[in-house]
Amino acid sequence: MYEDLSLYIDGQFIKGEGRREQDVFDPATDTVIGKLPHATTEDLDRALTSAARAFEAWKKTSPTDRSKILRKVAELARERAQSIGANMTLDQGKPIAEAVGEVMMCAEHAEWHAEECRRIYGRVIPPRMDGVRQLVLREPIGVCAAFTPWNFPFNQAIRKVVAALGSGCTIVLKGPEDAPSGVVALARLFHDAGLPAGCLNIVWGVPHEVSTHLINSPIVRKVSFTGSVGVGKQLAAMAGGLMKRCTMELGGHAPVIVCDDADVERAADILVGFKFRNAGQVCISPTRFYVQEGAYERFVARFVEKTKAIKVGPGSDPTNRMGPLAQKRRIAVFSGIIEDAHQRGASILAGGSTMGEAGSFYSPTVLADLPDDSRMMNEEPFGPVAGMVRFKTVEEMLKRANSLPFGLASYAFTGSTKNATAIANGLEAGMVSINHIGLALAETPFGGIKDSGYGSEGGTETFDGYLTTKFVTQLN
User: Fold this and answer.
1) What range defines the domain where residue 186 resides?
2) Is residue 446, in this structure, part of any structural domain at all?
3) Percent of the chain at pLDDT above 90?
């Protein structure tokens, strides 16, 4: 049974009850599977007020008590992973194994934050004169507003929630209206784990209306957003005009560097699985493949062979390795990028077309010999397509890889320590993964530079955006 969709405000689950409601679709069948209530202005104000009230008590709670709730959330997430994952497959489209895996991974995020929130320390600074005591205190910033995307509905939401709550903040979260079940399920986890009313509030609505109302409220002191570069810049500008702190995890267009001295077959096998995970709808998905001339033919042949073997179909079938695009509207954009590449002389080595009569299925696609001015090499495709280009030297490749305003994730495969060091130092990205895929773990920082945003989620850096620094100097 699909999730019973609702708002969650001040510890209460609120149904439609005359509110505007939005249809939620299954992208594999185009059928309506649920009705999502939109928050009224009064609902938004109630969420803000309850978060402000709850903050006064929550900020004083022991980190040990906060830790217990986060641990309980992790326990409940594991118990309910199958049902939460099945519902995410229904409204988001990803294969059931990926959806369940997303929930299980997020249990680790809750546990890690449960441990790390107990270690938010200040420090003592030695004074210059006798009788003076100098302290640095780290305090929760206040009520946070968070906005999360549809590609990883559960994962993106829990990262923000556990960081805010673990630091002593309270939060109002607007999740993705296209794929809401995971966020409603998340609210149930915290509710059942004993989180006090008002600490977490979930609202839905027309995105720009909700974000404008929440960010402009004097109650909100911190904004966290994961999504597109364009929207992120608008929200950051709005928040900046009000001197509100932001964490922005925005789009990426990840370069992949495969050098002549790499284990080419192993690199191709790893990258095919990662490229087409979640139908390529991943901000850190590898998209621009720079392959050195000596390895190009072997790598591309292996990559295409593995791509053509991917079984595409409804995510509810465990034998399918790739599901549909999450929204039908994405197909036109995606097709335009591929058509542009074809018109500019690129070869389509695999895929390149829609699949089936129902749903939003698109075949896993590989493009070769793309010109640098093609849309594919400049716009984040956010779908199941990989673009292959050749390069001669590492120096040349770094210049091309760094030519875009994006700077989120990047990948490289090489057998040379010299190349690995040059690539790690030379790539303009917030994250560099060499000879494996090692990003997005709970204990590691996740974030970008340039147009891909600022601030980190995960790692010890995760609480930085939710804490203020207070210096106290006292003469006894």
Assistant:
1) 7-250+452-475
2) no
3) 99
